[in-house]
Design a protein that fits this description.
Blueprint: H1 2-19, E1 22-25, E2 31-34, E3 43-47, E4 52-58, E5 62-66, E6 72-76, E7 80-81, H2 86-178
Antiparallel strand pairs: 1-4, 1-7, 2-3, 4-5, 5-6
Length: 188
C-alpha cells in the first residue's frame, strides 16, 4: 500500500510539472484565490486581470495556480486565459497600429499621386484625341481638294484632246482647199 501511495504521489507531482504552463487571468475581472477548489474554501488573496500565472493542476471547475507573488491557490477555470492580458498586449497593438497607419498614409499618398498622374494622362489623351479629329477633318478636306484637282486635270486634258481633234478635223477640211491640187494637170 505504501508503494502505491508513493507511486500515486509521484505521478501527481510529475503531472503537475507537465501541466505547468504560463497562463493569464482573463481581462474580465479581479478574482480571488481560494485555499481549495471552490468558493467555500478560505480566500487567501486576489489576482488582478491580466496577471501572469502558472498552472499547477486542473480540477473539473477549478485550477490550482501559482501567481507572480509566489502564492499557490485555486481559481475558477473560466477566468483563466492562454492569451496575455490587455496591459501586455496594448503596447504591442499600439505599435502595430502606428505601423499600419503609417503604411496606410503612404498608400493614400501613393494612390493620390497615381490619381494625379492618371488625371494628367487622361487630359493628354483628350488633347490628342481632339488633335486626331482635327487631323482627320483636315485629311478629308485635302482628299476632297485632291479629287477636285484630279477631275480638273482630267477635264483639262480632255479639253486639250478635243481641241487637238477639232483643230485636226478643221485643218483636214481646209488644207485641201488651200493647197492646189495636182490632179488638174494632166500628163498624158
Amino acid at each position: 500500500m505504501f508503494k502505491t501511495k508513493n507511486l500515486f504521489l509521484i505521478l501527481i507531482f510529475i503531472s503537475s510539472f507537465a501541466n505547468a504552463a504560463t497562463s493569464y487571468i482573463s481581462d474580465d475581472l479581479h478574482t480571488f484565490i481560494h485555499s481549495g477548489p471552490g468558493t467555500k474554501y478560505k480566500i487567501i488573496g486576489s489576482v488582478n486581470t491580466g496577471d501572469r500565472i502558472e498552472i499547477i493542476r486542473k480540477n473539473s471547475k477549478y485550477t490550482l495556480i501559482k501567481d507572480s507573488k509566489g502564492r499557490s491557490g485555486w481559481v475558477n477555470s473560466k477566468y483563466i486565459s492562454a492569451q496575455p492580458g490587455l496591459k501586455e498586449r496594448l503596447p504591442q497593438l499600439e505599435t502595430q497600429l502606428t505601423k499600419v497607419q503609417t503604411q496606410l498614409d503612404e498608400y493614400k499618398t501613393n494612390i493620390e499621386s497615381q490619381d494625379n498622374k492618371l488625371e494628367k494622362l487622361e487630359n493628354i489623351n483628350l488633347t490628342l484625341n481632339k488633335q486626331i479629329e482635327e487631323i482627320q477633318i483636315l485629311n478629308a478636306n485635302l482628299n476632297d481638294k485632291l479629287d477636285t484637282k484630279k477631275n480638273d486635270l482630267l477635264m483639262r486634258w480632255f479639253s486639250y484632246g478635243g481641241m487637238v481633234a477639232g483643230g485636226g478635223l478643221l485643218l483636214g477640211l481646209i488644207l485641201p482647199y488651200l493647197i492646189p491640187s495636182r490632179r488638174k494637170k494632166s500628163r498624158w
